[in-house]
Amino acid sequence: MTSEAQPHHRLMPTLAQVVDAADSLWPFRLQENWDASGLVTGRPDQPVQRILFAVDPVAPVIADALQRHADLLITHHPLLLRGATSVAALGFKGRVIHDLIENRCALLACHTNADSARRGVSDALIAATGVNPDDAAPLFADGTDPNAGLGRVGTLSRSVSLRELAHRLATNLPGTAQGLRIAGDPDQMITTVAVCGGAGDSLFEEVRAARADVYITADLRHHPASEAREHALGPGGHGAPALIDAAHAASEALWLPWGAQDLQRTLAARGFDVEVSVSDVRTDPWDFRVASPDSDSTPNHTSGETS
């Protein structure tokens, strides 16, 4: 007498259990006081079988989540960061919320908590430069957890020129219209690297205190970047740090596969079987750029040509 194979029944977590797993990886207590990380839509007791990661909760990403029949969309950026007085489907945020709710897809934002946590956004970014993230330290440590905090600083195993580091980073980051903007001598040798995924011009003092040779971040504005260069070129500045300005979404997107893998592993360790994937929808808002005719001219404050 033979026994028939029993059908495999997937043990799916509830949304509340997935949020708890996310909190164990990227504690929500680490988020900045102005942030809005956390659950945006969804019933805590609804089952979750498919999870999708993305940077931005924009309409094409929502469409991708629904096409994949995702039960949960986890985005880095919050949908309602600055609050709202209405979620009527009259604007894009209201339409997004209605699409999610009507299709029973929850939305969870992991923003500055994922920036500060280990194996978070800045760890993924510094790994793209060649620094071992396990050996990197926060630029601005969290008061309750010195191993966590905003930004990272670490040392390359082999010093490289600013030009070589920039090419390495450009290869490892998702492609964008902006590419990389770089301030500094292309031949300057880089050993100590500081990074902050997303907009990081509030950490210049910490970067200088760390004596980093280069600072990699996004959304650098004219005045903070100009003042940083003046600090570097002034007495005792030693020409550092050079600056590499990446596109905002690109500087954060490297974390998505890390986050997906870590969440799937954590849920599996708790006995749950879920599908976790990363959206391939491009959410960088810029479509193309036109370089200035003299864009290859001699860099400011330095000698030599860029390549």
TrEMBL record:
<dbReference type="InterPro" id="IPR002678">
    <property type="entry name" value="DUF34/NIF3"/>
</dbReference>
<comment type="similarity">
    <text>Belongs to the GTP cyclohydrolase I type 2/NIF3 family.</text>
</comment>
<protein>
    <recommendedName>
        <fullName>GTP cyclohydrolase 1 type 2 homolog</fullName>
    </recommendedName>
</protein>
<feature type="compositionally biased region" description="Polar residues">
    <location>
        <begin position="294"/>
        <end position="307"/>
    </location>
</feature>
<keyword id="KW-0479">Metal-binding</keyword>
<feature type="region of interest" description="Disordered">
    <location>
        <begin position="285"/>
        <end position="307"/>
    </location>
</feature>
<dbReference type="Pfam" id="PF01784">
    <property type="entry name" value="DUF34_NIF3"/>
</dbReference>
<comment type="subunit">
    <text>Homohexamer.</text>
</comment>
<dbReference type="InterPro" id="IPR036069">
    <property type="entry name" value="DUF34/NIF3_sf"/>
</dbReference>
